[in-house]
Predict the structure.
Amino acid sequence: MTIQDLINWFDNRDTYVLYYYAIILIATLICISIVNRNNITSVKYIMSIIVYGVAIPGILALFLTLYNILFLHKSMLEVSMISYFLPIIAILVILFLLNRKIKMSKLPGFSKLSSLFIMISIAFLLIFILQKSFFGVLILGSFTQLLLVFAVIMVVLRFAWIKFSK
Protein backbone atom coordinates (compact mmCIF):
# COMPACT_ATOMS: atom_id res chain seq x y z
CA MET A 1 0.00 0.00 0.00
CA THR A 2 1.40 3.36 -1.03
CA ILE A 3 0.63 6.75 0.41
CA GLN A 4 -1.49 7.53 -2.63
CA ASP A 5 -3.50 4.35 -1.98
CA LEU A 6 -4.07 5.52 1.60
CA ILE A 7 -5.22 8.94 0.40
CA ASN A 8 -7.54 7.28 -2.11
CA TRP A 9 -8.91 5.04 0.65
CA PHE A 10 -9.78 8.12 2.73
CA ASP A 11 -11.28 9.81 -0.34
CA ASN A 12 -13.53 6.82 -1.01
CA ARG A 13 -14.66 6.75 2.63
CA ASP A 14 -15.09 10.44 3.17
CA THR A 15 -18.10 10.01 5.48
CA TYR A 16 -15.89 8.22 8.03
CA VAL A 17 -13.43 11.12 7.95
CA LEU A 18 -16.26 13.62 8.38
CA TYR A 19 -17.66 11.59 11.30
CA TYR A 20 -14.18 11.49 12.88
CA TYR A 21 -13.78 15.25 12.80
CA ALA A 22 -17.40 15.81 13.89
CA ILE A 23 -16.82 13.59 16.94
CA ILE A 24 -13.62 15.48 17.76
CA LEU A 25 -15.41 18.83 17.41
CA ILE A 26 -18.27 17.66 19.67
CA ALA A 27 -15.80 16.32 22.24
CA THR A 28 -13.96 19.65 22.12
CA LEU A 29 -17.13 21.62 22.71
CA ILE A 30 -18.10 19.34 25.60
CA CYS A 31 -14.65 19.71 27.19
CA ILE A 32 -14.75 23.46 26.79
CA SER A 33 -18.16 23.65 28.43
CA ILE A 34 -17.30 21.47 31.45
CA VAL A 35 -13.75 22.58 32.21
CA ASN A 36 -13.17 24.82 35.21
CA ARG A 37 -10.50 25.30 37.86
CA ASN A 38 -11.75 22.37 39.94
CA ASN A 39 -11.63 19.66 37.26
CA ILE A 40 -8.80 20.91 35.05
CA THR A 41 -6.50 18.04 36.05
CA SER A 42 -8.88 15.36 34.81
CA VAL A 43 -10.13 17.14 31.69
CA LYS A 44 -6.67 18.13 30.45
CA TYR A 45 -5.88 14.52 29.53
CA ILE A 46 -9.01 14.31 27.41
CA MET A 47 -8.06 17.61 25.80
CA SER A 48 -4.59 16.26 25.14
CA ILE A 49 -6.08 13.25 23.34
CA ILE A 50 -8.22 15.62 21.28
CA VAL A 51 -5.18 17.74 20.39
CA TYR A 52 -3.18 14.70 19.31
CA GLY A 53 -6.16 13.30 17.42
CA VAL A 54 -6.47 16.43 15.35
CA ALA A 55 -2.83 17.62 15.22
CA ILE A 56 -1.15 14.54 13.79
CA PRO A 57 -3.45 14.26 10.74
CA GLY A 58 -3.37 18.05 10.39
CA ILE A 59 0.42 18.23 10.36
CA LEU A 60 0.63 15.36 7.89
CA ALA A 61 -1.97 16.99 5.63
CA LEU A 62 -0.15 20.32 5.81
CA PHE A 63 3.15 18.84 4.69
CA LEU A 64 1.43 16.65 2.10
CA THR A 65 -0.20 19.76 0.65
CA LEU A 66 3.10 21.66 0.67
CA TYR A 67 4.81 18.69 -0.96
CA ASN A 68 2.23 18.60 -3.74
CA ILE A 69 2.51 22.35 -4.31
CA LEU A 70 6.29 22.80 -4.05
CA PHE A 71 7.72 19.53 -5.30
CA LEU A 72 5.13 18.00 -7.63
CA HIS A 73 3.64 21.31 -8.86
CA LYS A 74 0.22 19.73 -8.59
CA SER A 75 -2.85 21.89 -8.96
CA MET A 76 -4.75 22.18 -5.69
CA LEU A 77 -7.99 22.35 -7.66
CA GLU A 78 -7.62 18.65 -8.49
CA VAL A 79 -7.11 17.29 -4.98
CA SER A 80 -9.67 16.11 -2.48
CA MET A 81 -10.89 18.61 0.09
CA ILE A 82 -11.37 15.82 2.65
CA SER A 83 -7.80 14.53 2.50
CA TYR A 84 -5.88 17.73 1.99
CA PHE A 85 -7.76 20.66 3.50
CA LEU A 86 -10.18 19.33 6.14
CA PRO A 87 -7.39 18.21 8.55
CA ILE A 88 -5.67 21.60 8.24
CA ILE A 89 -8.91 23.49 8.88
CA ALA A 90 -9.76 21.14 11.75
CA ILE A 91 -6.42 21.64 13.49
CA LEU A 92 -6.80 25.41 13.28
CA VAL A 93 -10.38 25.40 14.59
CA ILE A 94 -9.85 22.87 17.38
CA LEU A 95 -6.62 24.44 18.64
CA PHE A 96 -8.23 27.90 18.53
CA LEU A 97 -11.22 26.68 20.55
CA LEU A 98 -9.11 24.85 23.12
CA ASN A 99 -6.59 27.67 23.42
CA ARG A 100 -9.37 30.09 24.37
CA LYS A 101 -10.17 27.97 27.43
CA ILE A 102 -6.81 26.53 28.49
CA LYS A 103 -3.18 27.27 27.66
CA MET A 104 -1.72 24.66 25.34
CA SER A 105 1.46 24.49 27.44
CA LYS A 106 -0.60 23.05 30.30
CA LEU A 107 -1.65 20.06 28.22
CA PRO A 108 0.53 16.98 28.67
CA GLY A 109 2.70 16.26 25.66
CA PHE A 110 2.00 19.47 23.74
CA SER A 111 5.67 20.51 23.83
CA LYS A 112 6.60 17.21 22.17
CA LEU A 113 4.01 17.82 19.49
CA SER A 114 5.38 21.30 18.77
CA SER A 115 8.91 19.88 18.68
CA LEU A 116 7.80 17.24 16.20
CA PHE A 117 6.33 19.99 14.03
CA ILE A 118 9.60 21.93 14.21
CA MET A 119 11.66 18.86 13.26
CA ILE A 120 9.43 18.00 10.31
CA SER A 121 9.45 21.64 9.18
CA ILE A 122 13.22 21.87 9.28
CA ALA A 123 13.65 18.59 7.42
CA PHE A 124 11.08 19.66 4.82
CA LEU A 125 12.76 23.04 4.37
CA LEU A 126 16.17 21.40 4.09
CA ILE A 127 14.95 19.01 1.41
CA PHE A 128 13.27 21.86 -0.46
CA ILE A 129 16.41 24.00 -0.36
CA LEU A 130 18.57 21.10 -1.50
CA GLN A 131 16.24 20.38 -4.39
CA LYS A 132 16.02 24.00 -5.56
CA SER A 133 19.55 25.15 -4.90
CA PHE A 134 22.50 25.31 -7.20
CA PHE A 135 25.54 23.67 -5.70
CA GLY A 136 28.02 26.28 -6.77
CA VAL A 137 29.91 26.40 -3.53
CA LEU A 138 33.29 25.93 -5.16
CA ILE A 139 32.65 28.79 -7.58
CA LEU A 140 30.34 31.14 -5.66
CA GLY A 141 31.41 30.54 -2.09
CA SER A 142 33.86 28.68 0.06
CA PHE A 143 33.59 25.21 1.48
CA THR A 144 33.64 26.67 4.99
CA GLN A 145 30.42 28.55 4.23
CA LEU A 146 28.79 25.27 3.26
CA LEU A 147 30.03 23.65 6.47
CA LEU A 148 28.77 26.62 8.50
CA VAL A 149 25.27 26.32 6.98
CA PHE A 150 25.30 22.57 7.63
CA ALA A 151 26.40 23.12 11.25
CA VAL A 152 23.63 25.66 11.88
CA ILE A 153 21.03 23.27 10.50
CA MET A 154 22.36 20.44 12.66
CA VAL A 155 22.32 22.63 15.80
CA VAL A 156 18.70 23.59 15.16
CA LEU A 157 17.78 19.94 14.54
CA ARG A 158 19.60 18.92 17.72
CA PHE A 159 17.74 21.57 19.74
CA ALA A 160 14.41 20.34 18.36
CA TRP A 161 15.36 16.73 19.12
CA ILE A 162 16.31 17.58 22.72
CA LYS A 163 13.02 19.40 23.18
CA PHE A 164 11.15 16.49 21.62
CA SER A 165 12.83 13.79 23.70
CA LYS A 166 12.17 15.48 27.07
